[in-house]
Amino acid sequence: MDRPARTDKLAPTKTLIMINTNRHIQSDLSRILHLIWHIARNYPILPALVFLMVIFLATFAPQLAPFEPNAGSIRTRNLPPFWMVGASAEHPLGTDPLGRDMLSRTIYGARIAVVVAGSVLIAGGVGGTAIGMLAGYKKGWVDEIAMRAVDFTLAMPFLLVALTTVVVLGQSMTLMIVLLILFSWDNFARVVRAETLRLSDIAYVESARISGASTQRIILRHILPGVFGTVMIVASLRVGQLILIEATLSFLGAGLPKSVPAWGVMVASGQNFLQTAWWVAAVPGMMIFLVVMGFNFLGDWLRDWLDPRLRQQSQ
Amino acid sequence: MVRFVALRAVYSIVVLWLISIFVFSMSRAAGDPRNLYLDDYATQEMWDAWGVDMGLDKPVIVQYSIWLGDALLGNFGESLLHKKNPIELIKTRIPATAQLAGAAFLFSVVVGVPLGVISAVRRGGIVDYASRMFALLGQAMPVFWVALMAILIFAVEFNLVPTSRKGGLDSFILPAITLGWMPAAGLLRLTRGSMLEILDSEFIKLARAKGVTPKNVIWKHALRNALIAPITLAAVILASFLTGTIVIESIFAWPGLGTLSIEAIKSNDFPVMSAIVMLFGVFFLVINFLVDLMYMWIDPRVRIS
Fold first, then answer.
1. Which of A96, B7, B42, B68 is 20 to 30 A from A192 via CA?
2. At what angle do helices A28-42 and A45-59 cross, to 10 degrees?
3. Rounded to two decimals, what is the model's pTM?
């Protein structure tokens, strides 16, 4: 009896490729979506662009902005953005009810966002990292105190504490930054402590200790380089949140003072003019959204790239 | 296990005590606390009487215990704006906030969990990308801006729903969705993540091999086990609504606690503000405590460590 010919249908290369890339892909549309997602997820093009744009706008705000951010004029009130009827070429993004140029204010807003988020991240990041390393390396009562402080920070209703403080002490940028620092160090401390605990069991730290290196030297030379990647991940995942909190507080009238052209303040100033000049609220909010999304992507990407283990934990 | 529960309870009380110290020191931070409790119409006699009542001539510790005793009895002074007891004011505002928070919670669970499941089961499908987009937007857009844009589009332009104020059921649509979007995004991502993990596990393969229908495998075998993390997040979401409603209520002129706090901030009404902070502190800690308990009940591993 003849052996039956092979009837395997496993021939066309097209299916093979599909199987290899992603067996769940069903239609053309979802294949395109998958490609876009894949690129966005694996190459930080969007976050890199957003990051560079924000830094660029913040650094060169005085050179880039066509007008003074707080200079208004009664004759240029409520001009619409360029795609609408009645727009003015001088004010591409329109003007607000006080006649101030939206483009210039939005550009200066980037500067405020960078200053606030940057100083909070640096202070909270350095402080939290130092506390986390000390707690993880020294263990014992240092660790106990540090971790209880983290617990308490987590348990405080931040928004209300911030609102009350502002009611009593008045609005200022310094107060805002201090408040945000007090509520962002804990994340760094917790993650860095866990990482330090892991590192201090590794042979090279052990041998440094045996050879008589001081605590300071061990922490700075042997542990810090080991936790640096983690700190960068936490920082980048935190930026978006910080910008959102700052904007929310400013929007509520409890963050930055009204005279500061911060995005949150600008959205608040447009709240009562939705029907006459919707772009006053829409444009700065769009910026917040773009920047936060960019930084969220950057954080996700950095996490996957530097430390895939964290992926599970933070989801 | 009893030790764990007791420890959490002690933590909560210590945190509450710290919050009370914070509020008290805030009342003393701006100089004479009478400036915060009395308005410009107070007479000299009232001014002096308050000084005696608050023990301003005595050491700070004594002042604090006087303040704490009053606070425990629910006496936070008189609202400068409403001329009423802050606790009474808060009581009248609780229902509106609770209803809004309930509606938003319902939205985030009803949208977040099923979409997360479908997204995990049909990984790489259209629904998956749409849900991921939904989550991405929810976690990056500022809530207050979403609310304003929603009003602009759905209330002003198309006139589908009321712009603000509490009325019939339709007045809940915009506030509940804008408040619930971000937590829905979090729930969606979490459900999707843990469903993907569970669907890959051995017992699911066994269930499939045994011939359990796909529908039962997904919604009974897998989802039950995948829900541990989302359930704890759901409780955290409820706690976050305490402050989340402040933003939404101020935009939609919702007659709840959030609007009350905003009014208090705008008019420097410290008595009301301090009462709200203490009360929210209690809510917040009770919910966190319950989350810990629930976590322990769901996941036995927590009990050991």
1. B7
2. 50
3. 0.81
